[in-house]
Design a protein that fits this description.
This is N-acetyltransferase. By secondary structure, the chain is α+β, with helices and mostly antiparallel strands. Helices cover about 25% and strands about 35% of the residues. The chain has 5 helices and 9 strands, in the order E-H-H-E-E-E-H-E-H-E-H-E-E-E. The strands form 2 sheets. It has a 7-stranded mixed sheet, with helices on both faces. A two-stranded antiparallel ribbon has the order 7-8. Strand 2 and strand 3 form a beta hairpin. The chain starts with a strand and ends with a strand.
């Protein structure tokens, strides 16, 4: 298993990116300025895009695993890699996600705690309703973990 930074042709991984953020123009808002990492384990299994924000915050903008390889620890391995690589450079690792029973427990298991919400983020910024685990996503829930 190896983690590789992708610096060119990031859109080559668009299908995987769209698993976590299903509207391409929203992906475009952070893809060029973000740092992208892929996890290769006999083929690409997972990806992550991060951006440096103000006040010592590093934000996970997108993290996704190929569906048939979910639950095998690939996304957690990417988060562990980010924590190790950027420790000392940032104070907080942050992620924004929908209030979903599929994603919130994953981040909590990775050591994140709820920080704040942006009301109506998904209904205001996406051109169609987004559902995850049978739940319509409305608010963006931010979770944070200290480095």
């Amino acid at each position: 298993m190896k983690i590789i930074e992708v610096t060119e042709n990031k859109k080559e991984y668009l299908d995987l990116l769209l698993l976590a953020d299903e509207q391409e123009n929203m992906v475009d808002c952070y893809l060029d300025n973000g740092r992208m990492y892929i996890l290769d384990d006999n083929g690409v299994k997972s990806e992550c895009v991060i951006t440096g924000e103000r006040n010592g915050v590093l934000e996970i903008k997108n993290i996704a695993t190929v569906p048939e390889h979910q639950g095998k620890g690939y996304a957690k391995a990417l988060i562990d890699f980010i924590i190790e690589k950027y420790s000392g450079q940032y104070a907080v690792l942050q992620v924004g996600t929908g209030d979903s029973p599929l994603t919130i427990p994953f981040y909590e298991k990775c050591g994140f705690v709820r920080s704040h919400i942006i009301p109506n983020f998904f209904t205001d910024n996406y051109d169609h309703p987004i559902y995850e685990g049978g739940v319509q996503l409305v608010d963006m829930v931010y979770l944070q973990r200290n480095f």
